[in-house]
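Aim 2 progress update. The chain analyzed this quarter is reproduced below.
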Amino acid sequence: MWNVLVNGGLVIGLLLACGVFALLVFFERLFNLHRAQIPADDFLKGIYNVLNRDNIVEAAALCEDAPGPVARLALAAVLNHDDSLEKIGRAIEDAGLEEIPRMERGLGWLATLARITPLIGLLGTVLGMMQMLLAAKEAAPLVQSADLTGGLWYALAATALSLIIAILAYAGYNLLVSRVESILLDMERSASALLTFMRQWKRNREAPPA
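Predicted structure tokens:
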């Protein structure tokens, strides 16, 4: 089996390359999404405290230093604090729309690999069966089992390897999608909380001193 994988030719090599690529994409996305999902409530409370001291520069600096989409939403609100609530809301929405493609980057590759690797494995299976037939033809009329095992192993290895890669790629894809959806939920909650805070904060700033 190991010899088949090592010396498996183009199809097995292509499947192994797909598997390595899928692993790299998965772990890169998992790391970035884990880093992007910060404790949104605690982060926003810190921003609110700084803004309540009218320290706009510090609030913007905190948003720039923090990773993740929630920090980008807060930065959009801080940078547009002098505008109307409608413009602040639009800025937050635009910032969120810019973050979505960044979070979903690479997911299409995993979905594609989950779909095409079984087809590549099927190609390897067909080639393995063809190899068996050629071996049988060359050894005829005295065909022995040893003449056929090479092609059979190749066919089975291609099928098994392609299914393993497809299953893992699909599972990884679904796991990453669930992380993206969780971050999107944090973004929606944070956007609403930011608008509510900005409304009250602007009202307090515009109120005449007692």
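Residues 2-204 form one domain. The chain has a mean pLDDT of 85. These observations will guide the mutagenesis experiments scheduled for the next reporting period.
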